[in-house]
Amino acid sequence: MIENLRERTRGQVFVVGDEEYDAARRVNNWMIDKRPQVIVRCENTGDVMAAIDYARTNDLEIAVRGGGHSVPGFGTVDDGLVIDLSPMRNVRVDPVTRTARAGGGATWGDFNAATHAFGLATTGGIISTTGVGGLTLGGGIGYLARGLGLSCDNLVSADVVTADGRFLIASEKEHDDLFWALRGGGGNFGVVTALEFRLAPLSTIYGGPMFFELSDAAAVLAGFRDLIMDAPEQLGGFPAFQIAPPLPFIPEDRHGEPFAAIVGCWAGDLDEGEAQISKFRELAPVMAEHVGPMPYPALNSAFDALVPPGLQHYWKANFVTELTDEAIQAHLRHAPGLPAVNSTVHIYPINGACHRVTPDATAFAYRDANFATVIAGMWPDPAQNEASIDWVRSYYDDIAPHSEAGGYINFMAGDDQGRIRDNYRQNYDRLAEVKRRYDPDNVFHLNQNIVP
């Protein structure tokens, strides 16, 4: 049977015992150590169709892997079949229509490299090795969200292979119910093999990271909260907590210490950049900074080195309507205990253009939230697992009373399945209906699952 699958696919097929099997089964989160029965590295849509057919014929669970960054490890499965889209990384830009079409395995690094050549961009993530598909299907928060909206707000169409092996194009013009669900509903509805985006003119931004003393963190968070509510929408970025990495612009004797930070991104007229970013400097004395004009892809990849493959990951997430003073104090109780230089806490502003989309226009329901918080626990040593997970959970439990019931699905852990209805609010029942239409048997259930 496996030979038949190999004959039907152009991409590589790996099974237990193959020389490259162990490398092929790895995902970014090394806390996840699963052994699929079959891994299909798909090179085209036909490979995806063949893989789904093989899995269903042989009653195998299906995991879908794009960039491989899924913290809960949804991109792999024990004894099942992995559809690995990583070879499908081509990005084609049409500068006339200002659109770009990305393969299902493309990363934001791939996407930004292609679009930057034409002076164009759209909202991507914070780490350039993140998959375009996974980020977009969950909503897509990034530096440009206040000005351009979420990644899913800029999606024009998607190529989808459904659970019954059909190939569909979802857009406002065809299969519009599926298109609605894909914009925030995650991987519940099929395998997305290509995504087409609307682009905006953008080449160089003004910004970068600023580090502040922890003693000034309350002032920094409260000041950012107040400033970002009425700031021009071209001003993006986020406040954070971060252990200082060994970078040349940070005094050597401060390396390894925890700090509050703001990563700023001005995506408007460069002549205004210094004045706009200086607003953050007025919040508190800056300990160190690396700020100036830079290509947008450079900012989007600036923190890649802190998130290499092979770390242990455990994350939690919340939407926040009002970042209260009490919530800020909760952050200050836990942030100094960051487990490793790789760990971080980000508080992303999602107002501006994100608020101009109605809550029922896409599956992404929290259009009234002003922030999305992520406690991203990441560390290299498995011996730290118990203590670091406890830190994330304690932190989350303390800020939860000051947050909304739901959170951003791209940042949620595998033990957050009980929050699915809260994540989608009034849109959940409609999502379940779309799920019944396109995947009634819940073939695609390795995700933040919407039960048909």
UniProtKB/TrEMBL annotation:
InterPro entries: BBE, FAD-bd_PCMH, FAD-bd_PCMH-like_sf, FAD-bd_PCMH_sub1, FAD-bd_PCMH_sub2, FAD-linked_Oxase-like_C, FAD-linked_Oxidoreductase, Oxid_FAD_bind_N
Domain FAD-binding PCMH-type, first and last residues per copy: 31-202
Signal peptide: none
Keywords: FAD, Flavoprotein, Oxidoreductase
Similarity annotation: Belongs to the oxygen-dependent FAD-linked oxidoreductase family.
PANTHER family the UniProt entry points to: BINDING OXIDOREDUCTASE, PUTATIVE (AFU_ORTHOLOGUE AFUA_1G17690)-RELATED, FAD-BINDING PCMH-TYPE DOMAIN-CONTAINING PROTEIN
Protein name as it appears in the record: FAD/FMN-containing dehydrogenase
Organism: Kribbella aluminosa
